[in-house]
Amino acid sequence: MGGLVARALLTLKNFKPELINLLITQATPHVAPVMPLDKYLTDFYTAVNNHWILKAQDLRNLTTLSVAGGFRDYQVRSGLAFLPRLSQHDSALSVVSSAVPRAWASTDHLSIVWCKELILATIRAFFDLIDENTRQITQDPKKRMSVLNHHFVRHPAKMYEENPEAFTHLTGAFNWITVKASKWTYSVYNGSDGKYFSFPLASHRKSYSHVYCENSMLDTSSWIYGCMNTNSSMCLEAADLSWRAELLPTTKVVMLKLLDYPSLSHIVIQVPPAVGNKYTLGCEFFKEDSRTVQLPVTHLFSFGFSSSKILLNSTGLLYNVQLQHFNQIYQAFKIYIDSHCQSLKERKPSVYRLHIPWSYEDSITVAKVPSLAEISAKLHIAQPHSDSSLPELNIYSSPDCQYEVILKTSLLQVLGQIVRFHAGAFPVYIVSNILLTYGGQLSTLRSTGQCSDFSLELVRTAKPYKVEPLISIVVFLQGFNWFREIWESLSLPEVDAAVLSSQDAWFPLVSLILFLFGTGIAYWSGVFFSTSLRLFSSLWLTLIRPPELQKDKLITPSRLCGMISLALVSWTTCGAFSVLIVYLQYLFKVVKLHVTVRAEQNMHNRDSGHSKETSQNSSTHTVKAQSSGDSISEATQSPSNNKTSAEAVNSLKMHITVLNLFTWIVLLNLPSLIYWLKNLRYNVRLDPDPCRSTAIILVCILEILMNSNTSEVKSSKLLKIAAKVPLPLSVAMLAFGRMHLYRVPHFVTFSLLLHVLCCFV
């Protein structure tokens, strides 16, 4: 979050933007908060991002680099760390650590600050950013971007130079060797003499479009040049083409399009004398079409049963496999590259690079040859609508080897992408499921007079077709101007699904999958909650005598004082703190009720067994009239006890659901409580407090609700409304709460308020 605070400095009125000219952030969620838990946080993000967009011209002197951690960062997904590249100027650079030269590794959210490879890249960039005259960070924005691109995007395997010399003198008593073949490899061993290998271009321009060269000597010296001497294969002055090279984990490579260099007559490869070194070089001329193949990706619903295959049956040094129709964040594939070689001699490792042209999120894999390599293909950012380029799998291969590329949809990684992009919305779907269950229990109580179990009611009522179609219809209609005008005239907020669709982070089935996830989590959380209650009640029954079952009054003077006290605690300290207190109080009440119900049921079971035994004895022996009269009296009392016990069971089931619902409200308010506790030594009152007003209302509602009974609710005139309201509230929660989690407690509070009113009306 420090990166966001640094950007927020520029929104201050008295802050001068010219005071800073470089900002480097690591794993900072610039686009949106990971969990939008309160309105202050979302408003802060909106203010910062809008300021940077509106004041783009004023910030053109500020160079910003954002480094994301990649797929190993489970806390901040890399898509949130990408800064918008504004059209007015190009001073923002966003990269993923897996694409950073000499790092080539994904980092988690903590290791990104101590990853040695990233530390070295950052330090090297800092040294190159220093102006020799001022001994400060350079004031030239073009140089700053050039340095950052050199160290974080494309490294030519050379030390950075601001203005490299256009021509270099080729000196040294080296042998000049002319190579006319279209493909050439050379191995350097210890004791080899220095050589210049010259490749005349005139004979290759008609047949080939590109030249590709590679060098496994990973030093920083120049090694490839371009000559303009048309009369001889030797030249004393040449253009240094080493700046066009790119550093990879095991080699440095350069690919030149011959049409871009019409004045060059020769390509020259310099091989210095080898002193204790062993390395290989290679060059080849080729047509781009012959080394570029297209591989259509498998459909999302193939579930990994079908695959796309292609066999690269050639002996080239480079292949480009273009992945067609791979442009959405919910797509995820496993790519298997099976290499076979004609002989078993030692070869340099192959390098496989998944290149995403619209963002710097490449990933590189190094594999031995022959071998079967596995690559995961998935995106951090969907393809922009204005971009038509294709992702590529670059294979830097070993000669005389065949490569078979097999691509399959990975269902597990597709689900992983859904979780990565939408895990923050899980609480909304879970609470929505519990709210539907809560409404179903109220409806059952109204129709049958009995309250059903939480798990049974969840299975019966939590159906996605009750909520999803309406939201999809609204999103569809918002594509029409007339509907959007009506929507805005009603001052309704934008549907979150429409916003996510505009960001290419949404597709129709994702909501169904998330809803089913929410149903499963709600079910198992209910099972865990019920099991915990049984354990607590068993411990209570073991240690303490169970209380008697009695009907509590809704409001007493002592409870009213407690309600006012907790409201004052909310107002003067922290709303989440008072919510936690009333939650613990409610939990104690439910455990106590659970103990009482179990004790009553155990007593009733013993009485029933005793009554059966007495009846059996009376049928075989003569029994006194008084004894018979006692049995009748006991039998006449049991229906009343059964009714009281049944009401207690119904009340317990309802309280368990309300407490389950309230648990998630406490969890959503927990960050405010943690923040308040950490800053308690500085200030007793949390200001601003995002949940103060909601907490005061919840305290008042739950102080009454925890003492309520289903017998009071069954006869209420408002029960029909209270039972029907949770459904539209669930729809509204999913429509407006996915990207605004702080709205969830408001919907739950309104539903519980109706429940409280049912106790009085």
TrEMBL record:
Short name of any one Pfam family annotated for the protein: PGAP1_3rd
Compositionally biased region (Polar residues): 614-643
Domain GPI inositol-deacylase PGAP1-like alpha/beta: 1-128
The organism of origin for this protein: Serinus canaria (Island canary)
Protein name, as recorded: Post-GPI attachment to proteins factor 1
Keyword Hydrolase: yes
Domain GPI inositol-deacylase transmembrane: 425-760
Region span, Disordered: 604-643
Keywords: Endoplasmic reticulum, Hydrolase, Membrane, Protein transport, Transmembrane, Transmembrane helix, Transport
Transmembrane segments: 505-529, 560-584, 658-677
GO biological process, one term: endoplasmic reticulum to Golgi vesicle-mediated transport
Bias (Basic and acidic residues): 604-613
Gene Ontology CC annotations of this record: endoplasmic reticulum membrane
Phylogenetic placement of the source organism: Eukaryota, Metazoa, Chordata, Craniata, Vertebrata
Top-level taxon of the source organism: Eukaryota
InterPro entries linked to this entry: AB_hydrolase_fold, PGAP1-ab_dom-like, PGAP1/BST1, PGAP1_TMD
Family: Belongs to the GPI inositol-deacylase family.
UniProt xrefs under PANTHER family: GPI INOSITOL-DEACYLASE, NEGATIVE REGULATOR OF VESICLE FORMATION-RELATED
GO molecular function: phosphatidylinositol deacylase activity
